Model the fold of this input.
Amino acid sequence: ISVLPPILLDFTRRCPQVETSLHTGRIPDLFNMVRQNDVDLLYFLDKRTYFPEWVKVFERPEPIVFVASSSHPFVGQGKIPLKKLLTQPMVLTEQGISYRYDLEQILAAKGLELHPFLETGNTDIIVHMLLHHTGISFLPRYVVQRYLDAGQLAILPVGCPKIQMWSQLVYHKNKWVTPQMQIFIDLMGQQVGGASENH
Done:
């Protein structure tokens, strides 16, 4: 949702006869779709992942940040202990999402648990809640960057180990890359960037 719309608009202008279908799902299910040739390209956010049957077009590190409305009382308070953070209402992505899982592991090691008042896989809903001064979230920075730049949201410095994920674009090594696929790959590279790989 945060990355693809401008790329799809540009792609549609360049390849108006191509019928594009987007699929979303859990990471393991999407990996299987690549293996079974159910999708041409897979763009995902997770730990750095390699399979011998993949060609990785690019990867880019994506910091995950605690974020809230710029008017939240925690803004400007200095480093916030995890225990204090959890006293606030949390609005989070669903369980099983890679970066949330890593956060839950860090908290479990300290005997702490997440109890969000809202869980959703739609980050637009989460951002909407934050913009209306409701709660704190934990999101990839690229999801909220334009709101940070506009001063509407702020990153909270939390006493938590850094969680690093990677956005990655891959396809199966046996996949014939059509000229239209190559145009899409080039557009993704221009928009998202990152280090090119070939595995």
Q: What stands out?
A: The mean pLDDT is 91. The first helix runs from residue 4 to 14.
